[in-house]
Design goal:
Elements lengths: L13 H8 L7 E5 L8 E4 L1 H7 L3 H4 L16 H13 L3 E8 L5 E12 L5 E10 L1 H9 L6 H27 L34 H26 L8 H28 L4 E2 L5 E2 L2 H9 L3 H7 L5 H4 L6 H6 L6 H7 L1 H4 L3 H33 L2 H4 L3 H8 L4 E3 L2 E2 L3 H17 L11 H32 L1 H20 L3 H18 L4 H4 L5 H11 L1 H4 L9 H10 E6 L4 E3 L7 E7 L2 E5 L2 E6 L4 E3 L14 E4 L3 E7 H10 L1 H14 L2 E2 L19 E2 L8 E5 L15 E5 L6
Parallel strand pairs: 15-18
Antiparallel strand pairs: 1-2, 1-5, 3-4, 4-5, 6-7, 8-9, 10-17, 11-16, 12-15, 12-17, 13-14, 13-16, 19-20, 20-21
Helix pairs in contact: 7-8, 7-15, 8-10, 15-18, 15-19, 18-19, 20-21, 23-25, 25-26
GO molecular function, one term: voltage-gated potassium channel activity
Function: Pore-forming (alpha) subunit of a voltage-gated delayed rectifier. Activates at more negative voltages, exhibits fast prepulse-independent activation kinetics and deactivates much more slowly, but shows no inactivation.
Keywords: Glycoprotein, Ion channel, Ion transport, Membrane, Potassium, Potassium channel, Potassium transport, Transmembrane, Transmembrane helix, Transport, Voltage-gated channel
Length: 727
């Protein structure tokens, strides 16, 4: 059952935690890299710092944490030196310092340096806070210098004490009791720069878990039970309160009704402990947020639907017909079903079942109303409608007519079956006349049922048709493309052999990819995600030894250029003398390398065939044919794309040029003249079939690099009979 899981990826909420630490007093801070080798560059600048200093974020980024761009004539050199020592020593530091804004105006601030550690305990960042205290220090600046060193020191200490007390007061007010420290950020709550683990209580139920899915199915069945039994009890049982049938039905359904009520009450409790997806797409695990969300959405609907009316019967409390009517509020649970329909929309069989169930449920409700209409006409004792109502007509046919409003009449099961028969026949067609509408009230109701039937035909059966078409959409697409291919062959009068090759290729490729174009499917995905998908799809070729020394960026670039191909038996993948367009990797199947009718090599799964790249961008001529022996799945990368990637990564390009010789199963590059074979580096025995000899003879190269064999030169070649098993 598909459910929107929400955004579940672990997040680094460091900046949010830092913002919370300021308690709204100010937001003037910088983040510096503690692992930098050149002056600890600034990696983040808050908006408050930009407003305080007048510098734009682009002007501050990558400058040093010592903030040399804020220094001026009044900036204390001793404070600057202590700041450098704190940054180099990775310890906390706090001081009052005079800085200068971009416009040249000076301001006093309380400078606070706090090292930030990651989950390993390493200091990775510096948090540098700047609290503007110019108003307090303005009086001190305006006072004469001859006041003396002692008074100045006393004012500074007193001001620092007031600042710390003010900050600690805010901390107590908003976060409760904490250990007092002289830093702006208490150590117990110091944030760490790491991926935050999901904090979830063991009593919180995940909304996308399998257990929650099974519970939702159980509640769905209970909801359908309520939707069937409640209208029946209100319409049929309520009008037969003194009869034997009422006591039988009440005794038979009391236990199940109480069980359903308990299920609904338990569902309310579980909903208070079930996660949900917020408007931003993130999963909410906080218990308080879950409770508030549930109380403001579906709590009151679920509470009303779970009221235990059936407990009144269990304790033999006399109830009136009003209680039966109050039970109809349980039908509000159907609103929850509409909310969860999107969960079932991906399963055609489930949607088809739900639509047919909804159609049958509507017919059941209309049957209950149809019986109430007939019953009210009997109770009214109207001489005009008494003898022609459908319920009286049914009683006459069953030889149990009504004598008065409380005596006689058809049995309750027969009346319900006749009502359901009439409503279903009216919803699906125009009825058959054996149960018909005679009075005005019955005719008006019949008209309404026919209108509903037309609407249900459009909604239910229209959706059923769309679901069936969706189930066979892929097959329909296959037949459409096959018909287009046959029409193309017929219009252009292609020969039978070429026609057969085209049909076989189409059928074989369809069986592999099911008609899905991966490039078109992934076109709208971001490059980063497409590269990861491409690396997974092409992991076999990227794990070849020739790519072992490539960087991850190089592999990602290569993976985006790797394509898939297919070759049927007898098809030529490469022709001798043609320009080589790509290097091929055999995923499955086998091919043979031919020259002048002689087999030079047989390629199987895991083999790489192509050519090394010349230093100059010249056309690579192939020295042999490559022909498929069986159905082959291939992956290839074009020579042009390979050169483009190697040009972007020159440090790997030279390594690739030297390693490719040792990884090619067969080198197709035509060196001109008598070519020296690369079979010395082959991973499987290379078979040579000389058509001049008898068919029972095979030639196998030795493990030494040898020239191509001639009719007279048989050195390094061993001849064995095909009837004998080589060792």
């Amino acid at each position: 059952m598909p459910v929107m899981k929400g955004l579940l990826a672990p997040q680094n909420t460091f900046l949010d935690n830092i913002a919370n630490h300021f308690d709204g007093t100010h937001s003037n801070f910088l983040l510096g890299n503690a692992q930098g080798r050149h002056g600890h560059p600034i990696v983040y600048c808050s908006d408050g710092f930009c407003e305080l200093t007048g510098f734009a974020r682009t002007e501050v980024m990558q400058k040093t944490c010592s903030c040399g761009f804020l220094h001026g004539a009044e900036t204390s050199e001793s404070v600057v030196q202590q700041l450098h020592k704190a940054l180099d020593g990775q310890y906390e530091y706090q001081a009052h310092v005079c800085f200068y804004r971009k416009n040249g105006n000076l301001f006093w601030c309380l400078l606070d340096v706090v090292p930030i550690k990651n989950e390993k305990g390493d200091v990775v960042l510096y948090l540098i806070s700047f609290k503007d205290v110019s108003e307090t220090f303005g009086k001190r600046i305006s006072e004469p210098v001859h006041r003396g060193r002692k008074g100045s020191h006393f004012v500074q200490v007193r001001h620092r004490g007031r600042t710390i007390v003010h900050h600690l007061t805010n901390l107590f007010h908003k976060r409760g009791k904490r250990k007092l420290t002289n830093n702006m950020f208490p150590k117990p709550s110091l944030p760490e720069y790491k991926v935050a683990a999901v904090k979830k209580s063991r009593f919180i139920l995940l909304h996308y878990s399998i257990s929650k899915a099974l519970w939702d199915w159980l509640i769905l069945l209970a909801t359908f039970y309520v939707a069937v039994t409640v209208p029946y009890d209100v319409c049929f049982v309520n009008h037969d309160e003194g009869g034997e049938h009422h006591s039988q039905v009440s005794g038979g359904t009391m236990a199940s009704d109480i069980a359903v009520e308990l299920l609904f009450i338990l569902d309310i409790i579980l909903n208070f402990r079930t996660t949900f997806v917020s408007q931003s797409g993130q999963v909410v695990y906080n218990s308080r947020s879950i409770c508030l969300h549930y109380c403001t959405t579906w709590f009151f609907v679920d509470l009303i639907a779970a009221l235990p009316f059936d407990l009144l019967y269990a304790f033999n409390i006399t109830v009136t017909s009003l209680v039966h009517l109050l039970k109809t509020v349980r039908l509000l649970r159907l609103l929850r079903l509409l909310q969860k329909l999107d969960r079932y929309s991906q399963y055609s069989a489930v949607v088809l079942t739900l639509l047919m169930s909804a159609f049958a449920l509507l017919a059941h409700w209309m049957a209950c109303v149809w019986y109430v209409i007939g019953r009210k006409q009997i109770e009214s004792s109207d001489p005009v409608t008494w003898d022609i109502g459908w319920l009286q007509e049914l009683g006459k046919r069953l030889e149990t007519p009504y004598i008065n409003s409380s005596v006689g009449g058809p049995p309750m099961p027969s009346a319900y079956i006749a009502s359901l028969y009439f409503t279903l026949s009216s919803l699906t067609s125009v009825g058959f006349g054996n149960v018909c509408a005679n009075t005005d009230a019955e005719k008006i109701f019949s008209i309404c049922i026919m209108l509903m039937g037309a609407l249900m035909h459009a909604v239910v059966f229209g959706n059923v048709t769309a679901i069936i078409q969706r189930m066979y959409s892929r097959r329909s697409l296959y037949h459409t493309r096959m018909k287009d291919l046959k029409d193309f062959i017929r219009v252009h009068r292609l020969p039978q052999q070429l026609k057969q090759r085209m049909l076989e290729y189409f059928q074989a490729t369809w069986s592999v990819n099911n008609g899905i174009n991966a490039n078109e499917l992934l076109h709208d995905f971001p490059d980063e995600l497409r590269a990861d998908i491409a690396m997974h799809l092409n992991k076999d070729i990227l794990q070849l030894p020739v790519f072992e020394r490539a960087s991850r960026g190089c592999l990602r670039s290569l993976s985006l250029h790797i394509k898939t191909s297919f070759c049927a038996p007898g098809e030529y993948l490469i022709r001798q003398g043609d320009a080589l367009q790509a290097n091929y990797y055999v995923c499955s199947g086998s091919l043979e390398v031919l020259r002048d009718g002689m087999v030079l090599a047989i390629l199987g799964k895991g083999d790489l065939i192509g050519a090394d790249l010349p230093e100059q961008e010249q056309v690579i001529k192939t020295n042999a044919d490559v022909k498929a022996l069986t159905y082959c799945d291939l992956q290839y990368i074009s020579v042009r794309a390979l050169r483009e990637v190697l040009r972007l990564y020159p440090e790997y390009g030279s390594r690739f040029s030297s390693d490719i010789h040792h990884n090619l199963t067969y080198n197709l590059r035509d060196l001109g003249g008598t070519e020296v074979s690369t079979l010395a580096r082959i991973r499987i025995p290379v078979l040579l079939v000389n058509k001049a000899e008898q068919p029972s003879s095979l030639f196998i190269y030795s493990n030494h690099a040898t020239p191509a064999p001639s009719d007279t030169d048989a050195r390094h070649i061993f001849r064995i009979s095909t009837n004998e098993r080589p060792t």
